Amino acid sequence: MNISRRWIACVAVVPFLFVATGCGDESFDPKDLQNEIAKSVKSELGQVDVKCPDDISAKKGTKVTCTATDTDGTATKLLITIADDKGNFTIAPAA
């Protein structure tokens, strides 16, 4: 599935997704984050299964690439950027 670069300017608020890691650092719970991303892109990509790295820092500016795979097996790379320390993130097509 091809998507245009202007397709997503999505911001999600998911403050419940933080989990504490060592030394006071916070990261996102990967399963909850993946579910929120899938919900956020459903209108653009349809039903998808999202896979992200296991350890995503909740620090503002953190960028990770996740993969959304639709029911036909077509994979779309998504760039997730942590927007702030409150659980907001943006989703855009990955380069």
- Tally of helical runs: 1
| Whole-number total of structural domains | 1
Order of helices and strands: EEEHEEEEE
Helix content: 10-25%
The end-to-end distance, rounded to whole angstroms, is 14 Å
For the largest beta-sheet, the strand count, sense and barrel status come to: 5 strands, antiparallel
Shape: elongated
Mean pLDDT: 80
- How much strand? 35-45%
What does this structure look like?
There is one protein chain. By secondary structure, the protein is α+β, with helices and mostly antiparallel strands. The chain is 17% helix and 40% strand. The strands form two sheets. It has a five-stranded antiparallel sheet with strand order 1-8-7-6-4, covered by helices on one side. Strand 2 (18-20) and strand 3 (26-28) form a beta hairpin. It starts with 9 loop residues before the first strand and ends with a strand.
Write the layout of secondary structure elements.
Elements: E1 10-13, E2 18-20, E3 26-28, H1 30-45, E4 48-51, E5 56-57, E6 63-70, E7 75-82, E8 88-93
For the structure shown, list the relevant keywords:
95 residues; 5-stranded antiparallel β-sheet; 17% helix
What is the compact description of this entry?
The protein is an alpha+beta fold.
